[in-house]
Write a sequence for this structure.
């Protein structure tokens, strides 16, 4: 079962700071801009349908709305996030409260699926199961876009300069060598290395079309 309470606490803290991933240090500032450019450069056909998994406060859906996309969907387990995303996007996006590890609550396929934010895959016990669900949810020429932080960069210094400043109770590094920490008393977050990320995607049956290293993370595109 996903850690709903911990996700709600994180959403609350982020809400206070104005963004899901507040720019608390220069590295995150740069990374947020790279993610935005990656999504805007690669999602250019506004007729495509897009599902954002773990859409948070609707950050990425808002970029697409700006570029004329109308067929937008967001799914998140946090009530706070869905409420904030609704406020931000109005009726442009269909936003649903739900747990994507239990399958998708839709009777349709999507042209594009987004999975953004480093904790989303790494928190799961069987991450490739989610990739399989995504594969089933993609149309024939569908693409999955993943953005996540790179395990190489989880140092004590980075942790202190980001999570330390975020001030979320219960957040601590448990094993720097294995790139593992706990966020908000529940979310076990293991930052992935490139090979680990590739294995998860391939075990889920998707093909990697692009896996690019950006400042502190990976920007990847997968097809069926
Ligand atoms: C690290 S945040 C990223 C938010 C957003 N994707 C972004 O990039 O701004 C991860 C999001 O996934 C949501 N989430 C975590 N586990 C989930 C699950 N099992 N089902 C649906 N949403 C989930 C959290 O509530 C949170 O909003």
């Amino acid at each position: 079962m996903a850690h709903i309470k911990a996700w709600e606490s994180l959403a609350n803290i982020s809400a206070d700071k104005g963004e899901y991933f507040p720019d608390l240090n220069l590295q995150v500032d740069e990374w947020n801009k790279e993610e935005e450019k990656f999504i805007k450069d690669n999602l250019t056909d506004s007729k495509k349908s897009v599902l954002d998994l773990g859409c948070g406060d609707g950050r990425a859906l808002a970029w697409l709305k700006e570029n004329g996309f109308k067929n937008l969907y967001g799914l998140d387990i946090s009530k706070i996030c869905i409420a904030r995303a609704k406020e931000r996007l109005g009726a442009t996006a269909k936003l649903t409260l739900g747990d994507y590890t239990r399958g998708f609550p839709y009777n349709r396929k999507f042209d594009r699926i987004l999975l953004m934010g480093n904790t989303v895959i790494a928190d799961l016990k069987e991450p490739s199961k989610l990739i399989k669900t995504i594969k089933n949810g993609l149309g024939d020429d569908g693409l999955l876009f993943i953005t996540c932080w790179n395990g190489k960069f989880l140092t004590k210094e980075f942790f202190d300069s980001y999570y330390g400043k975020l001030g979320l109770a219960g957040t601590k590094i448990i094993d720097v060598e294995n790139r593992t920490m706990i966020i908000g008393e529940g979310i076990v977050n293991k930052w992935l290395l490139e090979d680990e990320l590739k294995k998860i995607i391939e075990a889920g049956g998707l093909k990697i079309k692009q896996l690019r290293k950006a400042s502190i993370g990976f920007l990847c595109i997968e097809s069926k």
Notes: The mean pLDDT is 92.
